[in-house]
Amino acid sequence: MARPARPVRLSPPTWLTAGLKPAPTPIPWAAVLRASVALSAPIAVGLAVGQPVYGALVSMGALSGVIGDTADAYRMRIFNIAVPQLFGALGVTLGALVFGHGWLAVAVVTLVALVSGMISSIGAVASVSGLLLLLNCVVGAGLPMPEPWWKAPLLLGLGGLFVLLLSLLGWPLRRAAPERAAVAATYRAVAELYEATGTPTYDEQRHAVTASLNQSYDLVLARRARQHGRAPHLVRLLAQLNALVPLLEAAPAAQLRVRLIGPLPAAIPAAVRELADAVEEGRTGTPVLDLPEPERPAEKAVDHALRYAATVVHKAEPDPYNIDDRLGRPAALRVRARRAARAVLLSEASWRYGLRLALCIGLAQALVSLIAVPRSYWVALTVTFVMKPDFGSVFSRAVLRAFGTAAGLVLAALVLAEVPRGWWDVPVMVVLAALIPAFSAKGYAFQTAAITPVILLLSDMLNQQGFDLVLPRLYDSLIGCAITLIAGYLLWPESWHTRIGDRLADAVADTAAYVNGAFSGDDRTARHRARRKLYRDLSTVRSEFQRALTEPPPTGPRAAAWWPLVVAVERIVDATTAARIRVDHGAPAPEPAEVAAVERELRELSDGLRSTDTLVEVRAELPGDETGVLAPLRQEVLAARAIAGPDLR
After folding, report:
1. 3-state secondary structure of 344
2. I need a surface site. Which of 132, 296, 396, 461 has the fewest CB within 10 A?
3. What is the pLDDT of residue 110?
4. What are phi and psi of 81, to 5 degrees?
5. Of the candidates 165, 152, 160, which has an alpha carbon nearest to the alpha carbon of residue 54?
6. Helix 103-119, helix 74-97: angle, nearest 10
7. What whole-number distance in Å separates Cα of residue 649 and Cα of residue 574?
8. Which residues contact 487 (CB under 8 A, 6 or more apart)?
9. Residue 422: other Cβ atoms inside 10 A
10. For all residues of the chain together, what is the average pLDDT?
11. Cα–Cα distances in angstroms (integers) from residue 382 to residues 27, 71, 130, 619, in the given order
12. Cβ distance 127 to 390 under 8 Å?
């Protein structure tokens, strides 16, 4: 009997459509209001004083500020907006100086692209700074700017300053509110983690806790005062955040206890939620905890950690137990600057990305110099946005950029065709500007669709081309995407032959060191630091794998094959932490030989991941006490070895 024919699949592959699904994020209404005011008010002022070009340039600077206004803490907003504006002013100055100079302009913009790409590897603020440096240089080299030379950077800087002032309006009233809300949110995430113990959502919730904890530490530590007396509210928040560490360490032990015995008492997550409310409201006083009497080591660990956190949260002193430095202070500014400079100049990844970006920009600029393309700066702008390193996969960004630009151009065409120029630009910009923060949170394609009509409207104010701008911009975007796909993706083998296991191998080696340190006498502070670093690194590994999943074959399918091993390594870290916590609260310590055997298996796994692109099952044996604290850890290690190991055949 003949088998029935398989139905033909007509839907596009997942890796192609993943970025077209809007992320389920709330609309940031405060950012929406700021964007509307920041981009429309300069246009109104420019029209009122008879200088619409000046108003358009100020709005362009405000657009850069709106894109960079992503921080929650007021102190970080100053850096996220002000520092990139300085680089943007430098970029437009360099671009304007070489405007109309042919191949000199090509060389200068290409060199700026190299520098932009290299500094983008330092961090988030440097990434935005590099983006604005290159974007404004491209605009300055492609559009005539008002004379004298200093006027364009001044006007662009005024736009960024306007966004910064709007962002800081609430600072006198809400000074530390974003940091306090972030710490309280982390406490609530921990409460949800304890509620999820023993359920299939435990791993997902643990990832949410890691992300929330990272965000809170980044906010509180960003510019924390070095002396306690200078910023007691930040010191207190950091102490409250550090007090969560024992609760997080006890969570894997609680998860194991739930699997063996039964659910945790509801009073435990309820008590953590109460602490979250106390953090957010700034309450002090004597904590009241109604908790059941602990009997087993895991229960004792949770009880001890919860009571300790309650004491720290409710104490009026900023740092009652002098735990402010448990996870270390940020290094001095000169030290961080020296490290950043060394990373930029000596890092292979920094040079590789800088050269890729410079090659693509150079080709874009050379192409439009050889072929007459009206307003040719749009080709290089497209390359810059697509190649930005922290937006995701280069391939998927090129595809999403094409879709987003097409959607944005449809909207721009309606505006440019039906709305007369002049004062009508102000209400139109109020609406279009509001879409930028609202859509940016939904995904890259949506952000592109929102930014495209705004840039086109501002460009029309500068060159008065009207509807004639629309189709050339679509062609320019497609050319830019094609250059990026060929010169920035296909010509670089690591783009489509990515060694998926390299980052994971590093994480496994660090996990082996963590296992050794957990049972070889490392002090509590060292274990805290090692564990935090591991979870942060694993969070980065997970993000890298999720990014790789959006790549076309063979990278995407290969990443999917390695995904179970990522989960297995995370469980090994959890099992190690649970074993250490149980020992701290009365369980017998494991034999050194048993610890050494686990460490050896992990190091062999790490070495195997570095030497192969193919996952090969390895049958390993880890004898030991089946009733001891390391029994769950040995099971997780054996499960990981069953997924992958060195191919010795």
Report:
1. helix
2. 296
3. 92
4. -105, -50
5. 152
6. 160
7. 32
8. 356, 359, 360, 363
9. 9
10. 78
11. 26, 25, 15, 50
12. yes
Query: Which tokens is 403 given?
Result: 């879709």
The amino acid present at 378, given as its one-letter code, is: W
Enumerate the H helices of 441-497 as residue ranges.
444-463, 470-485, 493-496
- Residue 519 scores a pLDDT above 60: yes
Pick from 312-326, 378-392, 457-471, 529-543 the range whose average pLDDT is largest: 529-543
User: What is the residue type of 15?
Assistant: W
For residues 298 and 317, what is the distance between their CA atoms, to the nearest angstrom?
Answer: 30
Buried/exposed code over 184-196 (b: 16+ C-beta within 10 A; e: otherwise): bbbbbbbbbbbbb
CB 582 within 8 A of CB 253: yes
Distance (Å, rounded) from C-alpha 17 to C-alpha 11? 9
Phi-psi category of 198—alpha, beta or left, where left has phi over 0 and alpha has psi -120 to 50?
left
The amino acid present at 519, given as its one-letter code, is: F
Q: In sequence order, which residues have a C-beta less than 8 Å from that of residue 506 and are 6 or more positions away? A: 537, 606
Residue 579 pLDDT > 80, yes or no? yes
Is 74:168 a contact under the CB 8 Å cutoff? yes
Taking alpha carbons only, the member of 294, 285, 71, 306 closest to residue 187 is 306
pLDDT digits (tens, 9 = 90+) for 25-35: 788 888 889 88
pLDDT over threshold 80, residue 622 = no
Instruction: Please report, in angstroms and rounded to a whole number, the separation of the first and last CA atoms in the chain.
Output: 41
